[in-house]
Specification:
Elements: E1 4-9, E2 12-18, H1 20-26, H2 38-43, E3 46-49, E4 61-72, E5 75-84, H3 87-109, E6 113-115, E7 118-120, H4 124-139, E8 144-148, E9 154-158, H5 159-189
Antiparallel strand pairs: 1-2, 1-3, 4-5, 6-7, 8-9
Helix pairs in contact: 3-5, 4-5
Length: 201
Amino acid sequence: MTTMYARIENGSVQQFPYSLRRLEMDNPNTSFPKPIKDSTLASFGVYKVADVAAPEVTDTQVAYHTGNIVQVDGQWQREWAIRDKTPEELAEDTRRKKDAIKKRRDEAMVAGTTVNGVTVATDDLSQQRITGAALAANIDNTTTVKWKLPDDTFVTLDATQIIGIAQGVRAHVQACFDREAELLAALEAGQSYDIDAGWPS
């Protein structure tokens, strides 16, 4: 991190930011050692300026640098201030949070599930395939399929099992949408929530 400096006379800020290069230019007849000690800088009215951590704010506030520096406990530091977010900023925050919830829903939805002891992939293509198999099983109850599992092994499923898995996958997908709805309701109500909790597996 680049060290910041200010030129200060009698407690009054004359120039900020200030640089060691500027100090040398302002004093062409002075040979400064490398590095320049703080005591030497102070003799020329130059002081380090600390970039302190931002103050804590609520979700509806923003902390920002005022552009000024202040002296706190003998140390010069950049001044922070807090303001309320604008309606546009609040709307953008809400949009980002909604997008994050939707992304988390999609992650949970395609993470797979277990139905009647069978581990099933739940990505979009797998959902389409199990739906097609379930349609065939409904038309012909003697239907059997060799179903490929996420670990690349196969199991033979009869019509009843196929339909059961399709129902389980559908329930998994719906549970993901239900959890999304709960989180969006909490967001709308201004309540705290854990975006990673409560999803089906």
